[in-house]
Fold:
Amino acid sequence: MATLEIGIDEDVAVSPVKRTPRLGLLFWAAIAWIILIFAAAGLVGVLPLPSPTDMDMLERRAPVSALHWLGTDGLGRDELARLIYGARISLIVGLCAPVIGVTIGGALGMLAGYFRGRFETLVVGSMDVLLAFPPLVLLLAVTAYLGQTLLNLTCILGVLGIPAFMRVARAATLTLARREFVIAAQALGATHARILLRELLPNVFLPLVAFFLLGVAVTIVVEGAVSFLGLGVPPPISSWGSMIGEGRESLDVAPRLAFIPAITMFLTVLSFNLVGDTLRALTDPRQGAL
Amino acid sequence: MTEPALLSVENVSVDLPTPRGNLRAVDQVDLKIGAGRTLGIVGESGCGKTMLSRAILQLLPKKAKLSGRVMFDGHDLVRLDPERLRKLRGRSLAVVFQDPMTSLNPVLTIGTQLIETLQEHLELDSVVAKRRSVELLAAVGIPAPEQRLMQYPHQLSGGMRQRVAIAIALSCEPKLLIADEPTTALDVTIQAQILDLLAREQRRRHMAMILITHDLGVVAGRTDDVAVMYAGRVVERAPTPVLFKKMHMPYTEALLAAIPKIDAAPHTPLPAISGRPPDPTRPIQGCSFSPRCRYAAGRCYREKPLLTASESLDHQYACFHPIQVTAGVCE
Structure:
């Protein structure tokens, strides 16, 4: 008589299952594009590019050639060089402005959501005031008064982003601060600073990061719009928005001058959104569990 | 009890201002618990059990007003300065909460939560703290503790999470553990395991424990003393065997009758307590249980009965018409 062995392998029974997350091809394409843009913008000094401001009046709106890979614009400036120099402006503004927003807005939102009371009323009230102010008018006023510089543009776009980040952080903190693990942490003798930084921040961090990447995408578009209107960094410095604006004049003869920066901006914004969504889906440990 | 009490709650009341008026959540409660002893606090939802435990820990909502004294190990917790209170919490006083789904931080690994507690309170370096964490997880019956340290709470089952919560509470060898309905969110087979685990660790560490529950069956056989709470007051208090041998308070009897019995015939109606607990914002004149009490008569509706001692000093009850009921469930 054969006996049936039904002993379960101990290791299989007790060791927790590891699951390997799968990332789509689209995600890697987005990452590749972001890396490409960042590398080009970062290495702009080393790349053998013609100057983005040297005009060649004989080569105006030149087609694609070995000398000018993407042709030249209406003033005979190399389109590729302008695109890459423009990437620097778009990325600096697109990253730094949301950093200002997420730092100040996130901190204010968490403090307001955790401590509540008069502080919260004050923060929420002042944010409502900021939100009620027309952003374009504020931008015009500040640039007219302080000058059209990269720093001013970044700061003002950053400040305009604070209320949104504050709201996201406060909403997340409000729901979390009532959860038992915060009381559990207090019961374990944690200080307010510790609860905010170690218990709440990791929880609030995820929605903030997702919102941050969205903020980057939006800010790049806003910077483009502002430059298109001529309120961005002053010429001859190029940015994607001002390139689209300049390309508008020759849409009938050389539509690529407007479309190349537009497509670049579109791909960059799309990539940031894709990466943001994928990262959130991957790192969200609350999926299904709570 | 001859030994000095580790924790004594003296005339503690908690008032919560609400839009509908003042809510007295805990009403003049006196309790004592000696080192290494177990006290069961029993009562239905909303009777002030959790508020009492929060009052002991000084973790009441900001608006709540507390009066009375909470003496723990020679300190009055109510008047202790915040910094010393903070050091006492976790180190000497620990809690296990009702719902292990929410009492662990969802985005930190089990290891981070355990190791940080150890480092914070015992000032261990990270290697020692990690080794201690593995030992603690093994002690609370978690298989493969090394791998579990790297996992997040959502990757564990409810019972497993409660074990982790207990491990965190035990990590600093507290003198008093408050278990606030530790098994309510778990299914029945796990409940027994968790209660046995708490009892075992308590004996091993000679730790005092307050076990808060709404189930008299949980308290029987696992506690030294029982306090029954109703509408914020302690209505009966006795050593566990004495209480189950001879209960005097009609509410205790009603609570016991509401436990389903395994040997009852199928389709036997479960005797629930009729009515609802009184609205705590509108204090009742007379005994707060009188509207729901079978035995209530005349005096019960006019005067509040005080906790009085019966034949033995240990057994106290607040009732004008004490009953004599023997519960057959005590071991």
Observations:
- The CA atoms of residues 225 and 241 of chain A lie 6 Å apart.
